[in-house]
Amino acid sequence: MIQAKACRMSGKVEVVTEKIFEAALSIGTPWYIAGINFDESQRKLKIRVDFELGSRFAVPGDSAEHPVHDTVTKTYRHLNFFQHECELEVRVPRVKLPDGSVRQVNPPWAGKLSGFTLLFEAFVLLLCREMPFSGVARITGVSVHRVMALCARYVDAAVAAADLSEVRRLAIDETSRAKGHEYVTLFADEQARKVIYVAEGNEAATVEAFAVNLRAHHGKPTEIESVSIDMWPAFIRGVTDHLPNAQITFDKFHVISHASTAIDKMRRREQKLDPSLKGLRWLLLKDRSKLSPAQRTELDALLAHMTTKRTARAWQYREQLREILTRKQPNVVRALLHQWCTNVLRSKVEPMKEVAQMIRNHFEGILAWVSSRQTNGFLEAINGLFQAAKRKARGYVRFRTIRTVIFLIAGKLDFSRLNPYLAQPT
User: Fold this and answer.
1) What global pTM score does this model have?
2) Residue 96 to residue 99: CA distance in whole angstroms
3) 6 or 294: which carries more pLDDT confidence?
């Protein structure tokens, strides 16, 4: 009697346990948990899932439900049960269609990559946005190649489904992919602040490839109104040829960067005859507002000799240029820039003359900044994040991997259509 009662109690506990797991795993009719096995030596929990006898199933591309033809056993890696690995061992049905073909049913929890559940894939993707693939592989116990394949599949699917019909303002910039002169080019929606295309190389052909991709995603190259780029001739030619109605804006910060480079060139030349200029590089390149009181005093001492030190005059020219580009009246900026170029070209500060000539050659694009206020600042920040991720991973070699990482970091891709456990981007 006591033994029979104990057996009944044990059976009830097993049923309750299975119902709890069914609720936790969102397993519903006709699926049910057929058994649970915990292997302490392997630190693994295995949950067996089956379906009710007589069930009928639909398959992708066919809404009708069909009787079961036969079954195959599939294993799906799921989220860990506390510190233990958890797997679903599922008896997956195959159905026979009216045309005689046999198709395998896709269980509702099955992920996009064979052998994973949707919840496990969501967990992996969230980790991959924050750390290198190798780190995710160590945490999950999945090979790094499987982790990379999973991320690439989600990125490819989300990018393929993207709608670019509303893109009007672009930012284009390059980032290095390896030592030497190997680059990838990033195209970003300036209003949405997200990367929408990644191309191999940094030639005019990359802009042409973007225009083709834009058409394929319901966008029109003729509807791009403005593009922010640096002064790389290939980008200028590519935008002119393939985005014909876009107003080119040369990022103000790139212009100031050229002026800062000119200051350093002048300092290097002059310090050969004036050792007092040695060690002043960062003092001259940093924004004055970010200098300490002692550094400002040292800078003021240099500027007091402006009539005799060309480095001091170069610094002054850069600050004048910075002040001009903060103004908001196009006509005023046009007149001041013309005068600035004239003054610099009449000076003996040779490196800054190159900047003045560059401004004259790209005058309208630089002036466009005053109206558009469009910069590549957020793309520069994205480049920094990618380079940091690349260093952590000790370099990415393949372009496909680089593209995947950039989209994970800065694509704001909508994975919720692929996996309900991944939130929409904000």
Assistant:
1) 0.81
2) 8
3) 294
